[in-house]
Amino acid sequence: MLVARSLSKEFLSGGRPLAVLRDVSFELETGAFAAIVGPSGSGKTTLLGLLAGLDVPSGGQVLLDGTDLTALDEDARARLRGEKVGFVFQSFQLIPTLTALENVTVPLELRGERGAEARARELLERVGLGGRGHHFPTQLSGGEQQRVAIARAFVNRPRILFADEPTGNLDGATGGRIVELLESLNREDGTTIVLVTHDLGLAARAQRVIRVADGRVVEDTGERRAVSVEGAA
Ligand SMILES: Nc1ncnc2c1ncn2[C@@H]1O[C@H](COP(=O)(O)OP(=O)(O)OP(=O)(O)O)[C@@H](O)[C@H]1O
Ligand SMILES: [Mg+2]
Fold first, then answer.
1. Does CATH place domain 2-93+159-232 in 3.40.50.300?
2. What pLDDT, on a 0 to 100 scale, did the predictor assign at position 143?
3. For ligand 1, atom 16, which residue shows the shortest CA distance?
């Protein structure tokens, strides 16, 4: 279960505080498939970073399976991320000097796990890149790099996967395959998935849609009240 409780985030902009998130609250059940949508600049990436424990809020709490991420120091958050969280960044952030296989293996090697290469090969196979493990990121298309990033995010068998625009910059067919991949990982592994997307087709396939605008939740299909207010408007 993932709980966001009255989250706020301010950044300093030209010396002045800029409120990017205000009073964001929701609860997501384990195994959920949720999409966060909203206009550019509305705070989606910032919110995802707080939920994943990559950054800390200015106010409020994030509880992941009962652990308050905001009460942990940076080292403890990093450990918890290594154990429970996968993250696919808006820009894939593959390591350019490592092959696809090595990129996928990194999180397991950081944990000192045996069998890292076999697990990485299995995941590359699953994302349809079984034969491409020896290629460097520059030798892969955008969609292929995105799939390597997803394989890397999954290599630790995270309880929860965050993906920022997983189909951004991809053509429809490639995007569709990535969505199917995320759906199968959600269904077969029971992984909670929280993604940010501008893609309405992708959002429509999520069980839950949380819409943000100007740093606030303006609609949440998991909250009947919010939906009926929207429906009545
Ligand atoms: N580190 C930072 N310092 C200052 N302002 C920031 C910082 N990170 C984000 N912002 C600001 O916060 C706002 C929300 O940014 P965020 O990246 O969360 O938006 P987004 O909804 O993900 O947009 P997009 O759809 O374009 O990716 C923006 O106005 C952005 O300029
Ligand atoms: Mg963003």
1. yes
2. 85
3. 43
